[in-house]
Amino acid sequence: MQALFGQLLIGLINGAFYAMLSLGLAVIFGLLNIINFTHGAQYMLGAFASYLLLEKLGIGYGWSLLIVPIVIGALGVIIERTMLARLYKLDHLYGLLLTFGLALILQGVFTNIFGSSGQPYRLPDVFSGGYNLGFMYLPKYRAWVVLMSLVICFGVWYVIERTKLGSYLRAATENAALVQAFGVDVPRMVTLTYGFGVALAALAGVMAAPIYQVAPQMGANIIIVVFAVVVIGGMGSIAGAILTGFALGVIEGLTKYFYPEASSTVIFVVMVIVLIFRPAGLFGRER
After folding, report:
1. Beta strand ranges found along 103-154 (DSSP E)
2. Considering the chain, what is the average pLDDT of its residues?
3. Residue whose C-alpha is closest to residue 114's, from 218, 245, 250, 201
4. Residue 286's pLDDT is what?
5. Per the domain annotation, does 284 fall within a domain?
6. pLDDT value at residue 287
7. What DSSP element (H or E) covers 188?
8. Residue 171 belongs to domain with CATH number
């Protein structure tokens, strides 16, 4: 039973990162209609930024949670204004190719500088130790990651689905010209939305740094799974990204316990089944 609950915990932690990353992808795709292949590299940038702040400047984990998303989000704003904005009137394939190329460049640069092996990130002292629940041992930091991701995901969902700002965002995805006629600066809203989605990826990278090795390949290793999560949940669906991310993380963990050989493919098997019977995804809408 301890092994089972241990795998469930690992699956829940993986699901937390799947949910946060797919949430950022869903936000960006919902408004910009761009499949952001740079998302995994931006997740990696968040982890490396927190690592460099600690190793070079002595800035700890707590400040990294605040500083890194702002800095990487600002970099995302620059990318959107200087590159992506030029492609909005072209076929969506151009945006996909651009973001894919940027991801390869960032990954190659960091591999050249730091090598392919991972760098350890020291766990903050406040999160050392854990809780003995009787049926399993729960490390403090892993419990905090799950709770923090739930709070972030629910907060983003609430803003988009239940606030005036969110109504503008959702309306802009349907008819940007009409929203512009009501005095809303849609281009600025698009830019800030992209920056926010990038900041979410960077925040996930900061949270992942103490758990996984900080490595140039860490974004490439997770982004394909995250895209599968987004497809299963429904492209552009906020609730779909969150619920599917956590659910598939748990399914992956259970598969590692009951049938380890299928753990690396179970998410893609689920994706194929969903696409056969519901091409728009579990929570998506037919266009």
Report:
1. 130-132, 137-139
2. 91
3. 218
4. 65
5. no
6. 55
7. helix 186-208
8. 1.10.3470
